[in-house]
TrEMBL record:
GO molecular function, one term: 4-hydroxy-3-methylbut-2-en-1-yl diphosphate synthase activity (ferredoxin)
Protein name: 4-hydroxy-3-methylbut-2-en-1-yl diphosphate synthase (flavodoxin)
Domain of life according to the entry: Bacteria
Start and end residues of each IspG C-terminal domain: 262-349
Catalytic activity: (2E)-4-hydroxy-3-methylbut-2-enyl diphosphate + oxidized [flavodoxin] + H2O + 2 H(+) = 2-C-methyl-D-erythritol 2,4-cyclic diphosphate + reduced [flavodoxin]
High-level lineage: Bacteria, Bacillati, Chloroflexota, Dehalococcoidia, Dehalococcoidales
Keyword 4Fe-4S: yes
InterPro entries for the chain: Dihydropteroate_synth-like_sf, IspG_bac, IspG_bac-typ, IspG_C, IspG_TIM, NO2/SO3_Rdtase_4Fe4S_sf, RibuloseP-bd_barrel
Length: 350
């Protein structure tokens, strides 16, 4: 049970998945294949769906990619969003291809007449639109004297008003930048101004190691304040890593339960076994587990049993032997050679 009270927002439906309106925060990713290669793209989508991805976005660089979305959508196990930059005609083709959602960037999609054509087509088919503002792609002449977060919000609001003037309210908004404080400030500001669901993320976040940290700080800060309805952790890494990182952020805030939670001690001078290696082996084995379970790997008897008390399954390791726990209760003593196999057997039994 989370202690976080979420911001009230409108609910929209993307291919059967509810975003906003009090629904659970969803986890998204984006394919890193050539969208024109239908087989490769669908294979990656299925891999992501198996990892827990709930909505997938595909880049649409040209007309061939937009047309390919028809087959991709037909074969995808999860809702498909078309990511459009520069050419509004690609958005029209994607809508006709049956996509579940659309992402457009007001900084480069063109004049209002072009945006109107896209909105009217989306309205006819009830396709939600994400107004995706990126700090790095705002027109340089747009409010040059304002701080970045204000420029991002004002750019998004201008597009919101345009969509609203066309009686369109299937709107989702993102305000992404590389800078964490600017991104957080932007989301805080717009959260108080509009009722639409917010898609959280950091853009150009970096490689898996640095990008996960930057994303966790930015996304986690906002989620802890109740801001955010869906997230994508953008990484220069395989997209499955984005999905795993997204769920780890949500699990750390008790917003979602998806797959295992691993509790492991950092190791110290009291540790008489290689707890780092054991924890890594356990983490690798747990990657195939999809059900929620809390597993503890502790390095000594000083804090181990107590800190593992609320774990579903845990082990407190000592020299030559360790104690297996199940929800704080001692199960049995195992030898050092059995640490990994015995713990994983308990996970399986649980």
């Amino acid at each position: 049970m989370t202690l976080i009270k979420g911001r009230e927002s409108n609910a929209i439906t993307i291919g059967g998945v509810t975003v906003g309106g009090g629904a659970a925060v969803t986890v998204q990713s984006m394919t890193k294949t050539d969208t024109r290669d239908v087989a490769d793209t669908v294979a990656q989508i299925r891999q992501l769906a198996d990892a827990g991805c709930e909505i997938i976005r595909c880049g649409v660089p040209d007309a061939a990619a937009a047309e390919a979305l028809r087959d991709i959508k037909r074969q995808s196990p999860i809702p498909v969003i078309a990511d459009i930059h520069f050419d509004y005609r690609l958005a029209l083709t994607a809508i006709a291809a049956g996509v579940d959602g659309l992402r457009i960037n007001p900084g480069n999609i063109g004049d209002n007449d072009r945006v109107k054509q896209v909105v009217l087509a989306a309205k006819e088919r009830q396709v939600p639109i994400r107004i995706g503002v990126n700090g790095g792609s705002l027109p340089p002449e747009f409010e040059p004297d304002q701080p970045l977060h204000r420029r991002m919000v004002d750019s998004a609001l201008a597009q919101v008003r345009l969509l609203e003037s066309l009686d369109f309210d299937l709107i989702k908004i993102s305000l992404k930048a590389f800078d964490v404080p600017e991104t957080v400030a932007a989301y805080r500001l717009i959260a108080a101004l509009v009722p639409y669901p917010l898609h959280l993320g950091m853009t150009e976040a970096g490689t898996a190691r640095t990008g996960i940290i930057r994303s966790a700080v930015g996304i986690g800060t906002l989620l802890a304040e109740g801001i955010g309805d869906t997230i994508r952790v953008s990484l220069s890494a395989p997209p499955v890593e984005e999905v795993r990182a997204g769920y780890e952020i949500l699990k750390s805030l008790d917003l979602r339960q998806h797959g295992p939670v691993l509790v492991s001690c950092p190791s110290c001078g009291r540790t008489e076994v290689n707890i780092v290696s054991l924890a890594e082996q356990v983490a690798a084995a747990l990657e195939t587990v999809t059900k929620p379970i809390k597993v503890a790997v502790m390095g000594c008897a000083v804090n181990g049993p107590g800190e593992a008390a609320d774990a579903d399954v845990g082990i407190a390791c000592g020299k030559g032997q360790g104690i297996l726990f199940r929800r704080g209760e001692k199960v049995r003593v195992v030898t050092e050679a059995e640490f990994l196999s015995a713990l994983l057997k308990e996970v399986e039994n649980f």
